[in-house]
Amino acid sequence: MARPLPPGGFRATLYPSIRMIIPFYILLALILLIGAFIAVKTLQLKGGRARVNQEIASARIHELTPLGCVEKLSILPLIDFYAANPDLKTEPGVSYLVSADDTKILLDVGFNAKKTDPSPLMHNMAALGVSPADLDMIFISHAHLDHLGGMADQKQKTFSFSRSAVDVPEIPAYTPVALTPSERNPKPIPHVINEPTVLKKGIASIGPIPRFLFLMGYTLEHALAVNVAGKGIVLIIGCGHQTIERIIERAQALFEEPIHAIIGGLHYPVHGGRIKLGPINIQRIVGSDKPPWHGIREADVKSAINAIKRVSPAVVSLSPHDSSDWTIDQFRQAFGERYVDLKVGKEIRI
User: Fold this and answer.
1) Residue 294: predicted pLDDT
2) Does residue 153 sit within a domain?
């Protein structure tokens, strides 16, 4: 004798099975999409790395002369992950005021991740007695959101001081790719740097160095170099995506003076990063030219330390915005008294 159907008949027996099957197929589709994304990115990475290696090998780099020198130099962090004073705002971004004799350079404009107004940059500038009117030039290290003022600026290829109008004078803004000032600070005049360039007596860009990153793709970044009389070249770096090994190699090809100091970001978020998506250390993946299952490792930190030791600078200061506390501790141990903590509001004098 046939068993009677439940209330609702055949559909009532079918729907529970469908409800169980649908989540499985959604999960399967998601796994396939992620797998396809990683496969495409891995293929792009292979081609991108080959392109970068070819560009670096074929680049014709000549000594920058005459460079000249400055008598005094200071670097005042305006934005970074740690601060010397609790009244100053911090975030995983970069902005440094570089004072070379009477020339004041703003290197990068921070992140403003929370889209506040005034931005952390403008808050800290006011607290530290720095005005946009004081600036003589802007130097954008590379076109990533934590150096341009936020995600919107990265998408629009602009750079912003804050979310409302800021009166920045008509000064040059040196960038490694085509960028324009935001409509909120429209006066700076952009200049794309395509090769090592003397910007002013004793002050130069080492020129863009390419790297192909797993998630961010083809990335051009340049660093600021200042020649201090009687001391040598001070390298001031935004994120160091070029790798410190290539930065040092470039500096040695450009300048006859020794490297006196290395200051700024080198992107080593090993055993911890400042930007996370749940348990995932995003910085470890974003800043690498390796597949995500490799990422940035302890060996990369050791390689960087060894490269820096070979040129024996008198001052080393690592930005915490893109390097972990573990990495900073490794640098402290490696360089001892030569190591200087980089904190917002703490001036580094050369």
Assistant:
1) 84
2) yes
Pairing of strands 259-264, 232-237: parallel
Structure tokens at 308: 């820096």
What's residue 275's pLDDT? 78
Place of tokens 């954008």: 140
Cβ–Cβ < 8 Å for 233, 258: yes
* Domain at 240, CATH number: 3.60.15.10
Dist CA 241 CA 237 (whole Å): 9
In order, the DSSP letters of 57-96 are: HH-------S---BS-EEEEEEESS-BSSTTS---S--EE
Spatial distance between the Cα atoms of 243 and 305, rounded to a whole number of angstroms: 12
| Distance between CA atoms of residues 123 and 110, nearest Å | 12
**Residue 105: domain span:** 59-349
Q: Which of 116, 122, 126 is nearest to 163 (CA)?
A: 116
The closest of 275, 276, 268 to 318, measured between CA atoms, is 268
* Residue 18, pLDDT score: 62
pLDDT at 241: 96
Number of domains the chain is built from:
1
Provide the 10 A C-beta neighbour count for residue 179: 23
Residues of the chain with pLDDT under 70: 1-20, 22, 24
What is the pLDDT at residue 15?
58
